[in-house]
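Lecture 7 notes: from sequence to structure.
We start with the chain below.
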Amino acid sequence: MSKFSELINQDTPVLVDFFAEWCGPYKTLAPILKQVKENLGDGVSIIKIDVDKNQAIAAKYQVRGVPTMLLFKNGKQVWRQSGVLSKDDIINIIKTTN
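Predicted C-alpha cells for the same chain:
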C-alpha cells in the first residue's frame, strides 16, 4: 500500500481506475482512458488497479462497484466517479481540478 501512496502523491494529477477483468463497462472505459492519456500526455498519470488483485486498496477507498475512478492531486482525493464517462468529460474534470 505504501507504493500506492507514493504513486498518488504527485504534483501531476493521478487518475486511478479501479476495475475488474470481468466487468463489461471496464472494456468500454479502457480505450477512453487511453485517449485521455494521449490527449493530456505528461499532464496526467493514469493507474489501473484490479480490485480482485488489490482488495486492500479497494477497501481503503470504499470501492464497491467497478469501474470507479478517483482523481488525486498531491496525495489528496479531489474527485470520484463510478461508471463510464466520455473522454471529454474526463479531460475537463482533470483540467478543472488542476
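Points to note: The chain has a mean pLDDT of 93. Helices lie at 2-8, 24-40, 55-60, 87-96.
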